[in-house]
Specification:
Elements: E1 5-9, H1 27-38, E2 47-51, H2 57-60, H3 66-76, H4 100-119, E3 125-128, H5 149-159, E4 164-168, H6 175-180, E5 187-194, E6 218-223, H7 229-247, E7 251-255, H8 273-285, E8 290-293, H9 300-315, H10 325-333, H11 350-370
Parallel strand pairs: 1-2, 1-3, 3-8, 4-5, 4-7, 5-6, 7-8
Helix pairs in contact: 1-9, 4-5, 7-8, 7-11, 8-9
C-alpha cells in the first residue's frame, strides 16, 4: 500500500504508572512498540512515525468541566494520597499519581493528532495505542479513564463539518462516548461489549438508541459471558457493517480494547485474535479514513499481540503466526509461553454458545425492528 499511515507514539509514556498493584499497566504500550519493531511494521516507507504531542488544557474543556480539569492538574502535582470522590479521583479504580495530568494530556493529544493526520489527508489511517479512554465523563473519572480523548477529538472533526462513526469493540461498553453524543445525529456510536447486566459499567443495552435529534444514532450489542469468535462475527456482520454502510460517515474512529481476548484476567468473553483481525480487515475494507485507538486490555502480551496484528492490517503487511525470537524470550519471562502471535482457533462450550446465540438473536431482532428502519436498512425478516 502506498497510502501514508501514522503511528502515534512517545517514549515518554514510560514515565507514568497507575501503581504496582493496579491492573492497568502502561508497560503494555512499550511492549506493543517493541513487538511492532521486531515484526518490521514500523519500517515501511508509507509509515509515518509521529511523536505524540500533549493536548492543551483548553482542548480538554471542549468536553470536560473546568473544575474537574483543575482538580486533575492540582492533584497531579502532589505525591498521591489526595481524593475527590465526586470527581471519581483517588479510589482504587482511578488512583491519583504524580504526573497524572501530563499522562492524560499525552493520551488525549495523541488522539487529537491522529484525527488531524486523517482530517488533513496527510495519512489515510492513524493509530494511537495510548488512546481510547471511553469511560471518562465530563466531570468524573471512571474505569481507569481520566479524560475522554475520543470525545474531544471527534468534537474537532464535527466542528470541521465531518460526520463521524465511532465503533467500540472493548469488552466494556463505551458509555462516556455514547453519553457525549446521545443527542446528535452527527456522530453514530456503535458498541459491541460484554453485557452490562452484571458487568461494568452496567450500561449498553439495545434500548439505548439516542435521544431527540440523536435518536437512532446509538447502537449497542451486548454479548453474554463466554461469547466466542462465531458470536462476535455475527454481531459485527449483522449490525456494525450495515450501519456503517447506511450512515456513510466521513471518518471512522474505532476503540480496540484487547480485554475481549479469552485470556484477559478481568473479562469473560472468549474471543481470539481471529476476531481482532476480522474486525480490522472489515474496517480497512470500508475505505474510510480510519483512526484506531487503544483502550482496555489487562494481559500485557495480549495487548501487544492484538494491537500489532491491527497495525499489520492497517499497513498492509503480512506477519507470521509466531512471535519473533527476541520478543518471544521477553514474553516468556513475563509468563507467556505459547510463543504465538496469533491465537489458535477456539470455540466456547456448546452450552455457553447456545446461550450466547439465543441472546444475540434477541438483541439483533430488536435492533432490526426498532433501529434499522431509521436508517433505511431492510430487516432480514
Amino acid at each position: 500500500m502506498d497510502e501514508c499511515v501514522a503511528w502515534i507514539y512517545s517514549h515518554r509514556f514510560n514515565a507514568f504508572s497507575f501503581g504496582q498493584d493496579h491492573p492497568f499497566k502502561i508497560q503494555r504500550l512499550a511492549l506493543t512498540f517493541q513487538l511492532c519493531q521486531e515484526l518490521g511494521l514500523l519500517d515501511g516507507k508509507s509509515v509515518d512515525l509521529v511523536e505524540c504531542p500533549p493536548a492543551r488544557e483548553e482542548d480538554l474543556l471542549v468536553f470536560h468541566r473546568r473544575d474537574y480539569v483543575q482538580a486533575l492538574r492540582e492533584f497531579s502535582q502532589g505525591e498521591g494520597g489526595r481524593a475527590n470522590f465526586m470527581f471519581g479521583l483517588g479510589d482504587v479504580e482511578n488512583p491519583v499519581f504524580p504526573g497524572l495530568f501530563e499522562w492524560a494530556l499525552l493520551g488525549c493529544g495523541g488522539t487529537l493528532e491522529a484525527v488531524r493526520q486523517v482530517l488533513d489527508q496527510r495519512c489515510r489511517r492513524a493509530f494511537n495505542i495510548a488512546g481510547g479512554w471511553h469511560h471518562a465523563h465530563a466531570a468524573r473519572a471512571s474505569g481507569f479513564s481520566y479524560v475522554n480523548d475520543a470525545v474531544i477529538a471527534i468534537e474537532e472533526a464535527v466542528r470541521k463539518g465531518r460526520r463521524v462513526a465511532y465503533v467500540d469493540l472493548d469488552a466494556h461498553h463505551g458509555d462516556g462516548v455514547q453519553e457525549a453524543f446521545y443527542d446528535t445525529d452527527r456522530v453514530l456510536t456503535i458498541s459491541l461489549h460484554e453485557t452490562g447486566k452484571d458487568f461494568f459499567p452496567h450500561t449498553g443495552f439495545p434500548r439505548e438508541m439516542g435521544r431527540g435529534q440523536g435518536y437512532g444514532y446509538a447502537a449497542n450489542v451486548p454479548l453474554v459471558a463466554h461469547s466466542d469468535d462465531l458470536i462476535f462475527e455475527q454481531a459485527f456482520r449483522r449490525v456494525v457493517l450495515p450501519l456503517l454502510s447506511a450512515y456513510r460517515p466521513d471518518i471512522l474512529v474505532t476503540q480496540l480494547g484487547m480485554d475481549v481476548l479469552r485470556t484477559d484476567p478481568l473479562t469473560r468473553l472468549e474471543l481470539t485474535t481471529g476476531s481482532v483481525e476480522y474486525a480490522a480487515r472489515c474496517f480497512l475494507h470500508t475505505g474510510l479514513p480510519w483512526v484506531a485507538l487503544g483502550g482496555g486490555g489487562y494481559d500485557k502480551i495480549n495487548v501487544a499481540r492484538g494491537w500489532s496484528l491491527v497495525w499489520a492490517i492497517m499497513t498492509g503487511c503480512s506477519v507470521p503466526d509466531l512471535l519473533p525470537p527476541g520478543f518471544n524470550r521477553l514474553a516468556s519471562s513475563l509468563g507467556y509461553h505459547s510463543g504465538r502471535l496469533r491465537d489458535l482457533p477456539h470455540l466456547a462450550h456448546p452450552d455457553d454458545f447456545c446461550r450466547a446465540q439465543d441472546s444475540l438473536e434477541r438483541h439483533v431482532a430488536f435492533l432490526e425492528r426498532r433501529l434499522f428502519p431509521l436508517h433505511g436498512i431492510p430487516s432480514r425478516g
